[in-house]
Amino acid sequence: MNNKSFKLGTLATAVALVSVMASCQNKDNGAATGSTAKTETASVKSGEPIVYVDSDSLLTKYQYFKDLKVKLDAKSKSAQTDLASKQQAFQREVAQYQQSQNTMPADQRASTEERLGRKQQELQTYQQNAGAALQNEQAEEQEKLYNKIADYLKVYAKGKGYKMVLTYQKGNSAILFADASLDVTSEVIVGLNEGYKSDKK
User: pTM of the full predicted structure?
Assistant: First the structure.
Protein backbone atom coordinates (compact mmCIF):
# COMPACT_ATOMS: atom_id res chain seq x y z
CA MET A 1 0.00 0.00 0.00
CA ASN A 2 1.31 3.46 -0.85
CA ASN A 3 2.20 5.71 2.07
CA LYS A 4 -0.94 7.68 2.85
CA SER A 5 0.59 9.70 5.66
CA PHE A 6 -0.75 13.17 6.06
CA LYS A 7 1.44 15.48 3.97
CA LEU A 8 2.08 19.10 4.84
CA GLY A 9 2.11 20.01 1.15
CA THR A 10 -1.42 18.82 0.51
CA LEU A 11 -2.85 21.02 3.24
CA ALA A 12 -0.61 23.90 2.26
CA THR A 13 -2.17 23.65 -1.19
CA ALA A 14 -5.66 23.63 0.34
CA VAL A 15 -4.93 26.61 2.54
CA ALA A 16 -3.34 28.45 -0.37
CA LEU A 17 -6.82 28.52 -1.90
CA VAL A 18 -8.19 30.52 1.02
CA SER A 19 -9.00 34.00 -0.24
CA VAL A 20 -11.60 35.52 2.05
CA MET A 21 -13.56 38.53 0.88
CA ALA A 22 -15.13 40.21 3.90
CA SER A 23 -17.25 42.38 1.61
CA CYS A 24 -19.20 39.36 0.22
CA GLN A 25 -17.45 39.44 -3.15
CA ASN A 26 -17.37 36.24 -5.22
CA LYS A 27 -14.69 33.84 -3.92
CA ASP A 28 -13.84 32.88 -7.50
CA ASN A 29 -12.40 36.34 -8.11
CA GLY A 30 -9.68 35.73 -5.53
CA ALA A 31 -7.04 34.38 -7.91
CA ALA A 32 -7.45 37.27 -10.35
CA THR A 33 -7.26 39.83 -7.58
CA GLY A 34 -4.21 38.11 -6.12
CA SER A 35 -2.24 38.83 -9.29
CA THR A 36 -2.57 42.58 -8.69
CA ALA A 37 -1.51 42.38 -5.06
CA LYS A 38 1.98 43.75 -5.68
CA THR A 39 0.57 47.08 -6.91
CA GLU A 40 -2.05 47.33 -4.18
CA THR A 41 0.35 46.61 -1.32
CA ALA A 42 2.57 49.56 -2.16
CA SER A 43 -0.03 52.02 -0.89
CA VAL A 44 -2.86 50.34 0.98
CA LYS A 45 -5.92 52.54 1.21
CA SER A 46 -7.23 52.96 4.71
CA GLY A 47 -10.76 52.07 3.61
CA GLU A 48 -9.83 48.96 1.64
CA PRO A 49 -6.80 47.26 3.20
CA ILE A 50 -5.47 43.99 1.85
CA VAL A 51 -3.32 41.70 4.01
CA TYR A 52 -1.80 38.27 3.58
CA VAL A 53 -1.02 35.13 5.56
CA ASP A 54 2.02 32.92 5.02
CA SER A 55 0.39 29.50 4.61
CA ASP A 56 3.58 27.55 5.39
CA SER A 57 4.04 29.31 8.73
CA LEU A 58 0.34 29.07 9.46
CA LEU A 59 0.29 25.29 9.11
CA THR A 60 3.51 24.61 10.98
CA LYS A 61 2.39 26.73 13.94
CA TYR A 62 -1.35 26.01 14.03
CA GLN A 63 -1.80 23.45 16.81
CA TYR A 64 -4.97 21.98 15.29
CA PHE A 65 -3.06 21.07 12.15
CA LYS A 66 -0.14 19.62 14.12
CA ASP A 67 -2.48 17.46 16.21
CA LEU A 68 -4.36 16.39 13.10
CA LYS A 69 -1.15 15.41 11.34
CA VAL A 70 -0.06 13.27 14.30
CA LYS A 71 -3.47 11.54 14.38
CA LEU A 72 -3.58 10.76 10.67
CA ASP A 73 0.07 9.71 10.55
CA ALA A 74 -0.67 7.23 13.34
CA LYS A 75 -3.69 5.85 11.45
CA SER A 76 -1.63 5.51 8.29
CA LYS A 77 1.16 3.69 10.14
CA SER A 78 -1.34 1.37 11.82
CA ALA A 79 -2.99 0.54 8.47
CA GLN A 80 0.39 -0.17 6.88
CA THR A 81 1.42 -2.41 9.79
CA ASP A 82 -1.86 -4.32 9.57
CA LEU A 83 -1.49 -4.79 5.82
CA ALA A 84 2.14 -5.91 6.15
CA SER A 85 1.08 -8.49 8.74
CA LYS A 86 -1.61 -9.89 6.42
CA GLN A 87 0.81 -9.98 3.48
CA GLN A 88 3.44 -11.84 5.51
CA ALA A 89 0.87 -14.40 6.68
CA PHE A 90 -0.22 -14.96 3.08
CA GLN A 91 3.38 -15.31 1.89
CA ARG A 92 4.00 -17.93 4.58
CA GLU A 93 0.98 -19.91 3.34
CA VAL A 94 2.26 -19.73 -0.23
CA ALA A 95 5.74 -20.85 0.85
CA GLN A 96 4.29 -23.80 2.77
CA TYR A 97 2.24 -24.84 -0.23
CA GLN A 98 5.25 -24.60 -2.55
CA GLN A 99 7.25 -26.87 -0.25
CA SER A 100 4.59 -29.58 -0.08
CA GLN A 101 2.83 -29.33 -3.46
CA ASN A 102 4.85 -32.16 -5.03
CA THR A 103 3.56 -34.60 -2.41
CA MET A 104 -0.07 -33.49 -2.67
CA PRO A 105 -2.77 -35.26 -4.68
CA ALA A 106 -3.87 -33.34 -7.76
CA ASP A 107 -7.30 -32.46 -6.34
CA GLN A 108 -5.72 -31.13 -3.11
CA ARG A 109 -3.25 -29.01 -5.10
CA ALA A 110 -6.10 -27.59 -7.16
CA SER A 111 -8.21 -26.73 -4.13
CA THR A 112 -5.23 -25.20 -2.30
CA GLU A 113 -4.30 -23.07 -5.30
CA GLU A 114 -7.91 -21.94 -5.62
CA ARG A 115 -8.02 -21.01 -1.94
CA LEU A 116 -4.73 -19.11 -2.17
CA GLY A 117 -5.98 -17.31 -5.27
CA ARG A 118 -9.07 -16.16 -3.40
CA LYS A 119 -6.93 -15.00 -0.47
CA GLN A 120 -4.71 -13.02 -2.80
CA GLN A 121 -7.73 -11.27 -4.32
CA GLU A 122 -9.13 -10.57 -0.86
CA LEU A 123 -5.79 -9.09 0.20
CA GLN A 124 -5.68 -6.85 -2.86
CA THR A 125 -9.26 -5.70 -2.20
CA TYR A 126 -8.40 -5.02 1.44
CA GLN A 127 -5.38 -2.98 0.38
CA GLN A 128 -7.44 -0.90 -2.05
CA ASN A 129 -10.22 -0.32 0.48
CA ALA A 130 -7.79 0.64 3.24
CA GLY A 131 -6.04 3.10 0.95
CA ALA A 132 -9.33 4.60 -0.21
CA ALA A 133 -10.54 4.96 3.39
CA LEU A 134 -7.38 6.84 4.37
CA GLN A 135 -7.65 9.11 1.33
CA ASN A 136 -11.30 9.86 2.10
CA GLU A 137 -10.53 10.66 5.72
CA GLN A 138 -7.65 12.91 4.68
CA ALA A 139 -9.90 14.75 2.22
CA GLU A 140 -12.56 15.24 4.91
CA GLU A 141 -9.97 16.56 7.36
CA GLN A 142 -8.55 18.90 4.71
CA GLU A 143 -12.01 20.33 4.18
CA LYS A 144 -12.49 20.80 7.94
CA LEU A 145 -9.13 22.54 8.20
CA TYR A 146 -9.93 24.79 5.24
CA ASN A 147 -13.32 25.69 6.75
CA LYS A 148 -11.82 26.42 10.17
CA ILE A 149 -9.25 28.80 8.71
CA ALA A 150 -11.68 30.41 6.26
CA ASP A 151 -14.36 30.91 8.95
CA TYR A 152 -11.83 32.45 11.32
CA LEU A 153 -10.45 34.77 8.63
CA LYS A 154 -13.94 36.01 7.75
CA VAL A 155 -14.48 37.12 11.35
CA TYR A 156 -10.90 38.37 11.69
CA ALA A 157 -11.05 40.41 8.48
CA LYS A 158 -14.40 41.95 9.37
CA GLY A 159 -13.15 42.91 12.83
CA LYS A 160 -10.03 44.54 11.40
CA GLY A 161 -11.78 46.19 8.49
CA TYR A 162 -9.86 44.21 5.89
CA LYS A 163 -11.49 43.67 2.52
CA MET A 164 -9.33 40.74 1.49
CA VAL A 165 -6.96 38.22 3.04
CA LEU A 166 -4.55 36.63 0.58
CA THR A 167 -2.29 33.64 1.14
CA TYR A 168 1.39 33.50 0.35
CA GLN A 169 3.44 30.33 -0.09
CA LYS A 170 7.06 30.48 -1.17
CA GLY A 171 7.50 29.06 -4.66
CA ASN A 172 3.77 28.54 -5.15
CA SER A 173 1.93 31.82 -4.97
CA ALA A 174 0.15 34.28 -7.24
CA ILE A 175 1.61 37.09 -5.11
CA LEU A 176 4.94 38.11 -6.63
CA PHE A 177 5.66 40.72 -3.98
CA ALA A 178 4.07 41.71 -0.70
CA ASP A 179 5.33 44.25 1.81
CA ALA A 180 6.08 42.67 5.19
CA SER A 181 3.91 45.29 6.91
CA LEU A 182 0.89 43.51 5.41
CA ASP A 183 1.83 40.12 6.92
CA VAL A 184 -0.73 39.23 9.61
CA THR A 185 0.33 35.57 9.92
CA SER A 186 1.47 35.75 13.56
CA GLU A 187 -1.72 37.44 14.67
CA VAL A 188 -3.87 34.93 12.80
CA ILE A 189 -1.95 31.98 14.27
CA VAL A 190 -2.48 33.33 17.79
CA GLY A 191 -6.20 33.71 17.17
CA LEU A 192 -6.57 30.26 15.61
CA ASN A 193 -4.66 28.56 18.41
CA GLU A 194 -6.70 30.35 21.06
CA GLY A 195 -9.88 29.22 19.34
CA TYR A 196 -8.59 25.65 19.14
CA LYS A 197 -7.73 25.65 22.86
CA SER A 198 -11.26 26.81 23.64
CA ASP A 199 -12.75 24.10 21.44
CA LYS A 200 -10.75 21.40 23.24
CA LYS A 201 -11.96 22.47 26.69
Answer: 0.68
